[in-house]
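G., the chain you wanted modeled:
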Amino acid sequence: MNHNAIQLPQGTKVLKAAEYQTIAQLASILDIARERADSIIEQARKTFEKEKVRGFDEGMMESKIEQSEQMLKMVGRSINYLAEVEGEMAEILMNAVKKIIDGFDDRELTVGLIRSALQHVRNERQVSVRIPPGHYTFVKERIAEILADYKGVGFINPVSDPRLDSGSCILESQIGVVDASIDIQLEALKRRFESISAETMGAIKRSEADI
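Predicted structure as tokens:
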């Protein structure tokens, strides 16, 4: 037995090779898209410098106007290209994540949501978790296992809540309430993708200003 092998916590979702490859390919496509945008901007920069020199040498106002229009068109192409690609990438990534989540057993998913919520209350001595009634027995039997990974939490009280559907989980403690439902987490992930896209677009526009 290899004692140095990585030990995964019980219940951990392991990505299939095809799923991992899909996400890896998406990341690679995004890198290529960014490189393409950088290339367009660099080309615009070189064209601007070249046309600027030619304009000054020939003393032609018309060439200056033409070079400016060309530069703006190329910068616009880079921004539009990256905006389109990153918008599609965010959608593809979200669909990939949803597909992976769909592969979970509903009860195992609830346990995973509880683990995720406990990340926010690691030092609370007592917490309650509201879960769908159909998952109550399964979760109750896993409480000791869950607590083993969160030494700062002394007690978890599972509460069967008929208002909750599969994929819902609400954790309550003295410091507040954490809604760890899958819809909430997917929305947070979507906003993160959008934030990354916005950061990239900001970098492109700053590059435009430097031309």
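The chain has a mean pLDDT of 70.

Shout if anything looks off.
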